[in-house]
């Protein structure tokens, strides 16, 4: 499957912004474009640039419950960003390229399963859409996602929290000091996917040395042990020492080293808002690393390598954390899950979700069926308060792609029940990944929409 | 009256146009004595015509292409300032390269200062090795040319006779490696090109032709001959551009067509989309080296009328080599031309010999000559048709960096396949059938290239890049950089400034009064926001003179202006 070239989709969305002065604005990848063009890397025989394409609304509905519907949560730019990831995925599976870089805007790793609006600059989760697309289209199962953004990839974590076939590892600045305030070592996945979620919250100010300590001693061994069929890097670049939102001290070269070591099939750009001092260099370095080119000459102007000495006390804290997480990983099959999650037919948790961009407060009650023969179906009772009007309450049912017949049956019952109850839910959704069918019911109109994936051969 | 002359590798074609009509045409072999060749061609078309009536002469030439392909250019040393980025190991060229300190970033700010000691050392070493020509190129020099200019000044002080070529003056577009190559080739071919220009001027003078003289560029535009001395490399690949413009002039306006120019060993393909020749998105590649030279999107397929055909086992294979003339014309081996002869699709050569050629392939397979000929032509047709489909596919796959660009992408297919060149007649109808198009062999197809040269328009472009936060702007094509005088400086002012530069440039090239409509082909404005406050704007504006051709050319009747 692996030949020599690296695929690039560069989609800077020069005509799209959240708002004129928002960090997620037209200018964000402008200097990256200049750097990449001036270096002439697109002329390298080892790199092939593709034109982006749009993802379908069904590809989104397979992952997200967009309220009220997909079209109301995404702009064309979102469709293009997600479509770029799936196009590169296709090109990897049909053997055209060995790996790829979706250097695209807008980002997606804060977008959770239920989408009431934009949070953390994200509406839909490009990586999650890619994973479910690849499972459908190319029949894979096990995927590892490593999130190297300075912010916790809480959206990706939420979507795969109960999926035993997705390993999600996120290292980021400690949630007590930065948005979204989650991603602690205790968040380890649900009862059916214990230790498939690993979080390494890093104390602010740490640099490449500690970064690579975590990579070498935790990320790489765990990913290797998990034996994924496909590796994705959520390539946020705001751990860079010049980032205005983060307080870490990683360098472009540190990012490139990490890319080389992880050797992901696909890197997908996430955050990174030092648009002049970091992005041109980090993006170039990641691209070169993916293409197997020498990146040792990439050097941001402000970088004096000896400038950063990590505080020994903080380094020791990270080392202890790595040790602890590694032992969680190694003993994941021996732990008493009932002791942690309790017994019963369902595991449930309540979640408060804040949409910082759109000022929405969401309250969720998430239930997972504890099933001995499959990961179990999930139901979510979600109530979103926009601060005006009546809160919007919706009910969502998600059937995993490897669901057993019993769970599938129960899930449809839950969906029908939610439709019946006269008052509660304005919208009821069904997402059956096992048959690739999505349903949406609108109470006010009493109408149901169905979307199905392409049949074989399409 | 207009004259078009295409000086090709084997043939020199010339036409004389009078009010959109071909008054005379000529085809003579290109000989080593360029002056004699030109005079011969001119004499043929000017028979009985007074030289004073010639208003305009346009040349296209493969001279620079051949010089570069044959590596018959002068040695040029290089001083490069790549700074951080790609590995410096990449900057290896078939000459002596000195990499010195100094770096500029994407906004034109100095990142690493220049080290004059290193300049002196490099210059000393290059001079010691006998170099008289040096290309000086820095990364992002088009955003700030200070380092290149400082190197130039320093070297001129120490070595006043050293000829230097600076990257920002040769190629202002982004892409450092391409700028290096383009600067290198410009430096290397300048003197030899000057010889060509002088021969042309001499030929014209000897025949008393006093009209304006232009040279065709790879992008299908013309430059005054004298001005082209500054940019010799821009004349590479003007041959295919000439044929494409010729087809544009000979076919109805607004059509989407493929130009198929089938020669002896190669077939050149070009696209005309809704009546306009398609420009390549990246600069031309010369001798395997990517450059910044703007060119039409032309694809060269290594198959032609003289390609060798052989049987290998039970398969018939068309090779890319040529080993002489077709068998029916006295050559050694069977060729596609022999196949066409057998099928009655060409009148070239001896039909009996052609049949013999097909039989040598077909006999061991038990196939009659007609069947073999059919298979050979289908092989050639299939090869060319696939390449045409590939060109359209690649055009659709051009990257898009804006939402609207992605959304407006559409599938376009040609309506007509237009054949020019010697081998065209036999193949074009079949290629068109394969692609579901109408075949067209325009009148004067054999001299379409010379017609294209004759009707080519002067084209000038100006690309302005302004950074209002730093208060600077640059004109890419001129290598000019200066401070912005007006404050505030917005999009409208930028457009006005760009248009002024276009007029200035036109005047310098002696083209004023003949500019036509000015087209704005790029208009990008980015707000620079720092800490939630807009601190400036980055403005990119490209204006150009109208593209296209001066005249359509008609078989009979009167010519019509566009």
**Number of continuous helical runs of chain A:** 12
**Superfamily at the CATH H level of the largest domain in chain B?**
ATPase, nucleotide binding domain
Query: CA-to-CA gap between the ends of chain A?
Result: 22 Å
Q: What is the number of strand segments of chain A?
A: 17
Report the mean per-residue pLDDT of chain B as an integer: 91
End-to-end distance of chain B: 17 Å
Largest sheet of chain B: 6 strands, mixed
GO cellular component, one term (chain B): cytosol
GO biological process, one term (chain B): glutathione metabolic process
GO molecular function (chain B): 5-oxoprolinase (ATP-hydrolyzing) activity
Protein name (chain B): Hydantoinase
Concise overview:
With 458 residues, chain A is of the alpha/beta class. Chain A is 30% helix and 22% strand. Chain B has 562 residues and is of the alpha/beta class.
Structural overview:
The complex is a heterodimer of chains A (about 450) and B (about 550). Chain A folds into two domains: about 5-330, Histone deacetylase domain (Arginase, Chain A), CATH 3.40.800; about 345-450, no CATH class. Chain A is an alpha/beta fold and about 450 residues long. The two termini of chain A are about 20 Å apart. Chain A is about 30% helix and about 20% strand. Chain B is of the alpha/beta class and about 550 residues long. Chain B is about 35% helix and about 25% strand. Chain B contains 14 helices and 27 strands. A six-stranded mixed β-sheet of chain B has the order 3-2-1-4-11-12, sandwiched between helices. In chain B, strands 13, 14, 15, 18, 21 and 22 form a six-stranded mixed β-sheet that branches. In chain B, a hairpin with a 2-residue loop joins strand 2 and strand 3. In chain B, about 50% of the residues are buried. The interface of A and B includes residues 33, 40, 43 and 300 of A.
């Amino acid at each position: 499957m692996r030949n020599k070239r690296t695929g690039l989709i560069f989609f800077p969305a020069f005509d799209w912004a959240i708002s004129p002065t928002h960090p997620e604005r037209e200018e964000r990848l402008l200097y990256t474009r200049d750097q990449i063009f001036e270096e002439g890397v697109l002329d390298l025989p080892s790199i092939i640039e593709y034109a982006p394409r749009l993802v379908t609304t069904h590809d989104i509905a397979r992952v997200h419950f967009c309220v009220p519907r997909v079209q109301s949560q995404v702009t064309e730019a979102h469709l293009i960003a997600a479509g770029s990831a799936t196009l590169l995925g296709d090109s990897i599976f049909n053997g055209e390229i060995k790996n790829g870089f979706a250097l695209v805007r807008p980002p997606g790793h804060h977008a959770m399963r239920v989408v009431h609006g934009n949070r953390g600059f994200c509406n839909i989760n490009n990586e999650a859409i890619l994973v479910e697309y690849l499972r459908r289209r190319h029949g894979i199962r096990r995927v590892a996602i490593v999130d190297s953004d300075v912010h916790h990839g809480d959206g990706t974590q939420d979507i795969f929290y109960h999926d035993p076939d997705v390993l999600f590892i996120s290292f980021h600045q400690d949630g007590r000091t930065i948005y979204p305030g989650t991603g602690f070592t205790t968040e380890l996945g649900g009862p059916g996917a214990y230790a498939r979620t690993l979080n390494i919250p890093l104390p602010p100010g740490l640099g490449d040395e500690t970064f690579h300590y975590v990579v070498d001693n935790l990320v790489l061994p765990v990913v290797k042990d998990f034996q994924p069929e496909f590796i994705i890097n959520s390539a946020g670049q705001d751990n860079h020492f010049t980032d205005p939102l983060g307080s870490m001290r990683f360098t472009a070269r540190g990012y490139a080293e990490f890319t080389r070591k992880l050797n992901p099939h696909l890197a997908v750009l996430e955050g990174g808002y030092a648009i002049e001092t970091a992005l041109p260099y980090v993006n170039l370095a990641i691209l070169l690393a993916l293409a197997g080119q020498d990146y040792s000459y990439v050097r941001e102007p402000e970088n004096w390598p000896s400038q950063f000495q990590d505080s020994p006390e903080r380094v020791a804290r990270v080392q202890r954390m790595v040790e602890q997480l590694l032992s969680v990983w190694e003993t994941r099959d021996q732990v008493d899950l009932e002791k942690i999650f309790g017994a019963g037919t369902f595991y449930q948790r309540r979640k408060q979700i804040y949409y910082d961009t759109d000022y929405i407060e969401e309250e969720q009650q998430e239930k997972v069926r504890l099933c001995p023969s499959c990961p179990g179906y999930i139901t979510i009772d979600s109530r979103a308060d926009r601060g005006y009007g009546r809160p919007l309450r919706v009910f969502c049912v998600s059937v995993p792609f490897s669901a057993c017949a019993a769970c599938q049956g129960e899930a449809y019952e839950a969906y029908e029940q939610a439709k019946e109850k006269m008052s509660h839910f304005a919208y009821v959704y069904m997402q059956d990944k096992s048959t690739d069918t999505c349903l949406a019911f609108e109470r006010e109109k009493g109408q149901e929409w169905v979307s199905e994936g392409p049949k074989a051969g399409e | 009256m207009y004259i078009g002359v295409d000086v090709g590798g084997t043939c020199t074609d010339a036409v004389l146009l009078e009010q959109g009509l071909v008054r005379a045409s000529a085809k003579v072999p290109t000989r080593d004595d360029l002056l004699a060749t030109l005079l011969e061609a001119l004499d043929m078309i000017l028979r009985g015509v007074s030289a004073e009536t010639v208003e305009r002469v346009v040349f296209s030439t493969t001279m620079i292409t051949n010089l570069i392909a044959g590596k018959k250019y002068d040695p040029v040393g290089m001083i490069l300032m790549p700074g951080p980025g790609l590995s410096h190991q990449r900057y290896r060229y078939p000459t002596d390269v000195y990499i010195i300190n100094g770096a500029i970033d994407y906004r034109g700010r100095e990142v690493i200062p220049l080290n004059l000691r290193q300049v002196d050392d490099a210059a000393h070493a290059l001079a010691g090795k006998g170099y008289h020509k040096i290309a000086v190129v820095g990364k992002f020099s088009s955003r700030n040319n200070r380092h290149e200019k400082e190197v130039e000044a320093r070297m001129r002080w120490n070595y006043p006779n050293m000829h230097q070529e600076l990257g920002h003056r040769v190629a202002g577009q982004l892409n450092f490696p391409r700028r290096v190559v383009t600067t290198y080739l410009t430096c290397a071919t300048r003197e030899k090109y000057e010889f060509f220009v002088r021969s042309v001027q001499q030929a014209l003078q000897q025949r008393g032709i006093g009209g304006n003289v232009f040279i065709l560029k790879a992008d299908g535009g013309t430059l005054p001959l004298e001005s082209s001395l500054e940019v010799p490399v821009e004349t590479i690949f003007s041959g295919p551009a000439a044929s494409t413009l010729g087809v544009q002039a000979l076919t109805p306006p607004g059509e989407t067509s493929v130009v198929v120019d089938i020669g002896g060993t190669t077939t050149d393909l070009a696209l005309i989309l809704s009546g306009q020749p398609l420009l390549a998105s990246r600069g031309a590649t010369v001798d395997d080296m990517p450059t910044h030279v703007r060119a039409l999107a032309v694809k060269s397929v290594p198959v032609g009328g003289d390609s060798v055909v052989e049987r290998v086992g039970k398969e018939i294979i068309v090779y890319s080599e040529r080993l002489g003339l077709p068998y029916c014309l006295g050559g050694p081996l069977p060729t596609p031309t022999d196949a066409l002869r057998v099928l009655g699709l060409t009148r070239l050569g001896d039909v009996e010999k052609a049949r013999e050629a097909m039989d040598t392939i077909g006999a061991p397979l038990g196939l009659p000559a007609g069947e073999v000929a059919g298979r050979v032509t289908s092989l050639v047709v299939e090869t060319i048709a696939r390449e045409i489909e590939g060109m359209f596919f690649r055009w659709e796959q051009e990257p898009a960096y804006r939402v609207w660009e992605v959304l407006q992408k559409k599938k376009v297919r040609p309506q007509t396949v237009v054949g020019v060149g010697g081998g065209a007649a036999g193949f074009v109808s079949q290629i068109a059938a394969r692609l579901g198009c109408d075949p067209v062999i325009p009148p004067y197809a054999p001299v379409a290239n010379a017609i294209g040269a004759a009707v080519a328009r002067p084209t000038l472009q100006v690309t302005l890049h302004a950074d209002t936060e730093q208060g600077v702007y640059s004109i890419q094509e001129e290598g000019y950089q200066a401070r912005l005088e007006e404050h505030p400086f917005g999009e409208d002012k930028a457009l006005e400034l760009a248009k002024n530069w276009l007029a200035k440039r036109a005047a310098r090239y002696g083209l004023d009064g003949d500019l036509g409509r000015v087209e704005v082909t790029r208009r990008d404005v980015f707000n620079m926001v720092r800490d939630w406050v807009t601190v400036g704007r980055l403005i990119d504006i490209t204006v150009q003179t109208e593209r296209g051709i001066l005249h359509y050319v008609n078989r009979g009747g009167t010519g019509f202006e566009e």
